[in-house]
Amino acid sequence: MIILPAIDLLDGQVVRLRQGQLDQRTVYPEGALYYASRWEEEGGNCLHVVDLNAAFTGEHGNLKLIEKLVSSLNIPVQVGGGVRSLEAAQRLLAAGAARVVVGTRAREEKSRLRVGQRSAN
Q: Which pTM value belongs to this model?
């Protein structure tokens, strides 16, 4: 079994959005490093991080925090949210992400994620 806990980041905070609405959020008081280490201690095999700023705006404003998460954990970190180009994916990989998750935007605009002759289908 693979246990894949997730943390959603918005403006550097751990949040949960109600029905995906930015104005309906729960902010968790402890920081992302606290929750990430707890997930690791509790047996998470990998941490899934969603950069909600990037998902809504395309700007990866949580990149420094993602770098801190990656460097503080002993489990792989995969990152999603707002990955709309190969360059964005490369930035996340350079920050230490083990995997980058692309979503519907990448599916709609496959040419933006072309690597050599292969594309993300």
A: 0.84
